[in-house]
Design brief:
Helices cover about 35% and strands about 25% of the residues. The chain is built from six helices and seven strands; from the N terminus they run βαβαββαββαβαα. InterPro entries: ITPase-like_fam, Maf-like. It is an enzyme of class 3 (hydrolase).
């Protein structure tokens, strides 16, 4: 069985849809990482998650760690802390191209897979009232950059470059290439 060390409902749904037998372990991580490069930031966060998890749970095998960030021209957008921050991030995204960088570490009995994937969304301009309703709904919470490609953002996506699963927070295609429940 695979253990998903993440509280992300999007990642859990991706694993369910892929038919992967897993158990989700909710764990609070300190994601306070200082890094200017979006790629290094995503890698450092997922490595820190692995370190913090195994400091408390040393006897697990087959564990999946993942993290995603949103960036616009190398400016990192993490999870908005409040409505004002969410509004600022959404205004930055409106009518632009944004990148979602998803990092994962898959720890198996005899191997460790580290992956960094990128997907891009080319977005139309957001309707202001729609944006304010989205913020009022609080659905942006716990979403990198406040991005909800399966929800609010869906109607504004003009083009997706890369895998949809990467944009949702986990490159499921890469995971399936390396994870075999029988090993």
């Amino acid at each position: 069985m695979l253990y998903l060390a993440s509280s992300s409902t999007s990642r859990a749904n991706l694993l369910k849809e892929a038919g992967i037998n897993f158990e989700q372990i909710f764990f609070n991580y300190d994601e306070n990482i200082k890094e200017e490069s979006p790629y290094l930031y995503a890698q450092k966060v997922v490595l820190e998650k692995q370190k913090q998890f195994f400091a408390k749970h040393s006897n697990f095998e087959s564990v999946l760690f993942a993290d995603s960030i949103v960036c616009i021209e190398n400016q990192i957008l993490t999870k908005p802390k409040n409505d004002d921050e969410a509004l600022k991030m959404l205004n930055m995204q409106s009518g632009r191209s944004i990148s979602v960088i998803s990092a994962m570490i898959l720890i198996l009995k005899n191997k460790k897979i580290i992956n960094l994937s990128k997907g891009d969304l080319v977005l139309d301009h957001f309707d202001n009232d729609d944006m304010l309703n989205y913020i009022d709904s609080k659905l942006y919470q716990n979403k990198a950059g406040g991005v909800m490609s399966e929800g609010f953002h869906k109607k504004y996506i003009k083009k997706i470059i890369g895998n949809q699963s990467t944009i949702l927070g986990l490159n499921i295609e890469i995971l399936k290439a390396f994870y075999d429940e029988n090993n």
